[in-house]
Design goal:
The protein is built from 3 helices and 10 strands; from the N terminus they run ααβαβββββββββ. By secondary structure, it is of the alpha+beta class. It has one domain. It has an 8-stranded antiparallel barrel with strand order 1-4-5-6-7-8-9-10. It has a two-stranded antiparallel ribbon with strand order 2-3. Strand 8 and strand 9 form a beta hairpin. The longest helix is centred in the N-terminal third of the chain and has 16 residues.
């Protein structure tokens, strides 16, 4: 009985000493409710529509960032419960939609850290989105849908 109790205590201490583990558990508790209501923003997006072939590479049905993509602009790959950028990868935990704006509550990982992040995207048209920063209204980044091959 005492051994089992110690295992439980160690497991709980591990969770609270590792904030990224706690974040993952929190997202799991929300049920990873990224759903079809974000399907309109799924795709491969580039900051310059004419640079899609320079920012992204394709092997089979997998799209990834070209080695020198930073020279041509920025981009996002949004598919299912994942958002991938050049510097990191996010798992979407919850989506809140307000008309044409999607607030994606995500857990993001880079080479340096893991942290929760809200990514807010406004759907302008079928082929254009704008990343907005709710705390900095004057800051926006436009992205254009890259054609699927």
């Amino acid at each position: 009985m005492e051994v089992r109790f110690m295992k439980i205590v160690r497991a709980k201490l591990f969770v609270f000493r590792k904030p990224h583990v706690l974040c993952l558990l929190t997202l799991a508790a929300f049920g990873f409710s990224a759903s079809a209501n974000a399907a309109g923003i799924y795709g491969v997006w580039a900051s310059e529509a004419s640079s899609c072939d320079k920012i992204f590479t394709r092997k089979g049905n997998q799209t990834s960032f070209a080695t020198d993509s930073d020279s041509y602009g920025s981009g996002l790959i949004i598919e299912g419960k994942r958002i991938t950028g050049k510097m990191g990868r996010c798992v979407i935990g919850n989506v809140k939609r307000e008309r044409n704006t999607f607030h994606l509550f995500s857990l993001c990982a880079s080479d340096i850290s893991e942290e929760p992040l809200q990514v807010s995207l406004r759907l302008i048209s079928e082929n254009k989105i704008t990343r907005i920063f709710p705390d900095i209204p004057e800051m926006e980044t436009e992205y254009f849908r890259c054609p699927s091959k």
